[in-house]
Amino acid sequence: MAFELRYPIETERLRLRPFTRGDVDAVFAYRKREDVAQHLFDGPMTHETATEVVGLRAGQFTLAAEGDKMFLAVELRERPEMIGEVSLIWRGAVSRQGEIGYIFNPLHHGHGYATEATRALLEVGFDRLGLHRIYARCAAANTASWRVMERLGMRREAHLREHAFFKGGWDEELIYAILEDEWRARDPSGR
Asked: Which residues contact 126 (CB under 8 A, 6 or more apart)?
């Protein structure tokens, strides 16, 4: 049975919605940047690649089976400007595991948008999908990303040192997670 949501998902300042083909230029604006690509598996994107990626993501907003991915565009509520994206991957049906991710345009860093959007996705995972554990990964050098995870109440579970050769050097990766009961016991203010 497919898990579907009503869109958009709204937070205090943001709107999370399925991708549309009209998002290509906004995605290209941040995915072409070296400072964004340095922490991702792929390099800076061309406009053509951004078009292909957005085309794929436009159809990925429901979860029907283990391994399915939900990608949502994040835009400001005050004006329809796309500023980033969030994802939820259903990693385990029996174990009720999920993985979240996020990429934001650096022009919008430092305003708490990644934390706010990802908090909404954690709510979806725990409250709507019934997940038991949700985790996230990032490069150890990506301080801003792991700080978002910590603000969300996630705990560092692993620091994988030199576990993969990546972009010409040894990669170090951090894994953070939060359990459903930890999520439910958190400060109601969400801080």
From this structure: 134, 180, 183, 184
Distance CA 46, CA 138 (A): 23
Domain residue spans of the chain: 9-135
Q: How far is CA 114 from CA 3, 48, 167, in A?
A: 24, 26, 25
| CATH node for 9-135 | 3.40.630.30
Confirm if 174 and 146 have CB atoms less than 8 A apart: yes
Report H helices in 106-163.
113-123, 143-151
* Span 31-40, pLDDT tens digits: 999 999 988 8
Please state whether the predicted TM-score (pTM) of the whole model is above 0.85.
yes
Say what the pLDDT of residue 42 is.
86
Distances (CA, A) of 16 to 75, 104, 131: 7, 13, 20
In contact, 170 and 133? CB cutoff 8 Å? no
Residue 85 to residue 27: CA distance in whole angstroms: 9
Residue 162 pLDDT level (bands cut at 50, 70, 90) = confident
